[in-house]
């Protein structure tokens, strides 16, 4: 048994995973997966060990200790004195893993040559990443939204490689409504003249207007309508008059200023090509494909799986998590986050998520895990 | 007492309403309102009479006997052997009333010179229209969505001019979420290069791509997500492969083909300038403005008002109608349409709407109305 080799704790590192062959038959040669980890590995890389694989959402990245800062760290729910928490940047992303903005083997950016990815392709890339690291089993995979979709696919593609899964704020497949609203976002980007058919990387321009428009739409699905209304209502943006005698794009309601800000912030930190590629993968999310449909696929699931939803989620309504819980072959538990925030509550309602993740680890490792020196005692058990 | 003069039953006719002065201080001189009516007028044009004023939604028009075809006509809920049903095209629209595409007094289309309208301006135009026709009171105003917003404003602007109101699938003011998603639609249009700052009418081009994109977003708020999913799920459009190795705009899921169709159909029948103007008026919907806030405004309402909502409405969630019902000063009744269809259910669930509108007329005219020859007996009472 050889121990896996990790980069320094918390540091962004890059792993060559070789060629990724996509579900639809394309190839990404010499693919790279970026990752970060926190906490020391303990246990058997081929068997029981202390790895928690965290799956980020659409525009997230491998820095889980940042975006789940209240939940990952010493003494926190995902206690890094106990667990080895690993998070990769998804293939197709723009935070270190190979994506549309990366250099193509033949030169230039991948751009329009970048294949369409499914959620399964993302999981496949992650499996190759773990193989490259020398880890062939993890204790659990945990993720929300697009990360929840990957987590669910993990349980069906590689059930033998995990003890448990925590699937948060997602569905068994993209619904018609989700495909519609996600495609509206893709449309906002590809209608931007600076998109250049996806090959804008050499033009010196980025389709920022399109990406911002996409984000404004998306953000309204990430947030509950009651929370948005409580915060902004119909208030004018300070110093602007949205009730003037003529409509003007620069005379805004406060909510529009907020959405403009969300859009501008995303343009600064995210690549439009990755946004399109990953949104497309959400459209293709369907755990029933090639498995006899949704119900059969869920029924054949063997991995103890906890399902978590948010009561006010517009994007992945709670009935979709109820559907998962009714049909999963090995349901570990069900939890509801109660919040006006909507979909994003799995990122913002830290107190509730703290209890939920602690419960998940207690349920998935009821007798504790004892692999050796990484464990410092029982004091972190709840 | 002089009787009002109507055009022929069912025919589109046009009435000059003079100058409309908007709430924000602009003017539309020599404004025209298009209308249709069904059923003979009976009663006192200054007092009790049999006029039902129907208010259409955003992209509706005066042909209420078409878009509410199951509900308006002889023997139907809005029985045209009994009632004189009148429906105008909203000011700012493109179906005969003055709007951005109409000719400006100085020549050319109004375009960007067209003022921003509020819902109150729409009601004001309609009041001037009724004055021009010689009708100074109606039995009831009835409308859904943007038509519901106008109906609600009628009850506060001209309570002395009506016996009752039926307010369907709307709220007391635009919520932050509504303003956000509506502005996303405006943004889709004004980002279209063919929009030309709103002055495209002389260019020979129309911002059709933008208008279609706006409609695709809007339609996802008009329909319940469960209905959309039941109809389309993740099915591919016939003859297309949305799961191919590369993403392509012409390889679609069925839901996207459906949304493209809805967009294309709107481009054929509707003007982008009107769409922007009327969507802007929805952003400005706020019955509390200048009336001491929402609660005070609702409390001072004197008109017996029936409130109707749809249980699965994403755009105007049912809690908004509950809010109206809790706070209206003179609540006549409350009714819930139960349907997977969402917001549009007030247009599609004819059987439920039939019962609701019959109940509304029974409640609002409990002793019947007896004005003379237009009435043929009691057999239509429920």
Description:
The structure is a homodimer of 382-residue chains. In chain A, helix 4 (176-190) runs antiparallel to helix 8 and helix 5 packs across helix 7. In chain A, 35% of the residues lie in helices and 16% in strands. The longest helix of chain A is centred in the last third of the chain and has 16 residues, at 254-269. Chain A is built from twelve helices and ten strands. In chain A, the strands form two sheets. In chain A, strands 1-2-6-3-7-8-9-10 form an eight-stranded mixed β-sheet, sandwiched between helices. Chain A folds into two domains: 13-174 and 289-381, Rossmann fold, CATH 3.40.50; 178-280, Rna Polymerase Sigma Factor, Chain: A. Chain A is α/β, with parallel strands linked by helices and 382 residues long. The first copy, chain A, has helices spanning 64-67, 119-133, 146-157, 176-190, 208-222, 225-232, 254-269, 272-283, 294-299, 318-327, 345-348, 350-364, and strands spanning 13-21, 27-38, 51-55, 72-73, 78-79, 84-88, 138-144, 162-168, 305-310, 331-337. The interface between A and B is large, with 65 and 65 residues.
């Amino acid at each position: 048994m050889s121990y896996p080799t990790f980069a320094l704790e918390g540091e962004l590192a890059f792993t060559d995973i070789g060629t990724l062959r996509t579900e639809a038959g394309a190839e990404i040669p010499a693919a790279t997966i970026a990752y970060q980890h926190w906490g020391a590995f303990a246990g058997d890389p081929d068997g029981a060990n202390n790895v928690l694989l965290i799956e980020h959402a659409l525009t997230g990245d491998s820095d889980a200790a940042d975006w789940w800062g209240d939940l990952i760290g010493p003494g926190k729910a995902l206690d890094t004195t106990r667990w080895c928490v690993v998070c990769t940047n998804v293939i197709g992303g723009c935070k270190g893993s190979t994506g549309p903005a990366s250099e193509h083997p033949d030169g230039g950016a991948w751009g329009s040559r970048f294949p369409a990815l499914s959620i399964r392709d993302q999981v496949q890339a992650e499996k190759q990443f773990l193989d490259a690291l020398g880890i062939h089993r993890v204790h659990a995979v945990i993720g929300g939204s697009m990360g929840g979709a990957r987590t669910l696919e993990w349980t069906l593609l590689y059930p033998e490689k995990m003890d448990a899964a925590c699937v948060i704020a997602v569905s068994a497949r993209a619904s018609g409504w989700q495909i519609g609203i996600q495609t509206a976002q893709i449309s906002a980007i590809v209608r931007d003249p600076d998109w250049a058919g996806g090959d804008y990387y050499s033009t010196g321009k980025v389709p920022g207007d399109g990406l911002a428009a996409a984000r404004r739409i998306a953000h309204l699905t990430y947030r509950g309508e009651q929370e948005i209304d409580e915060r902004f209502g119909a208030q004018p943006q300070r110093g602007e008059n949205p009730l003037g005698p003529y409509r003007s794009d620069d005379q805004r309601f406060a909510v529009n200023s907020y959405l403009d800000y969300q859009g501008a912030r995303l343009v600064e930190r995210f690549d439009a090509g990755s946004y399109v590629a990953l949104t497309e993968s959400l459209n293709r999310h369907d755990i029933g494909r090639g498995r006899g449909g949704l119900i059969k696929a869920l029924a054949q699931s063997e991995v103890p799986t906890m399902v978590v939803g948010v009561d006010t989620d517009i994007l992945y309504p709670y009935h979709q998590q109820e559907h998962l819980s009714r049909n999963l072959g090995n349901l570990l538990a069900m939890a509801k986050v109660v919040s006006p925030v909507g979909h994003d509550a799995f990122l913002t309602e830290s107190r509730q998520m703290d209890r939920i993740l602690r419960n998940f680890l207690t349920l998935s490792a009821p007798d504790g895990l004892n692999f050796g020196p990484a464990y410092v005692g029982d004091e972190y058990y709840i």
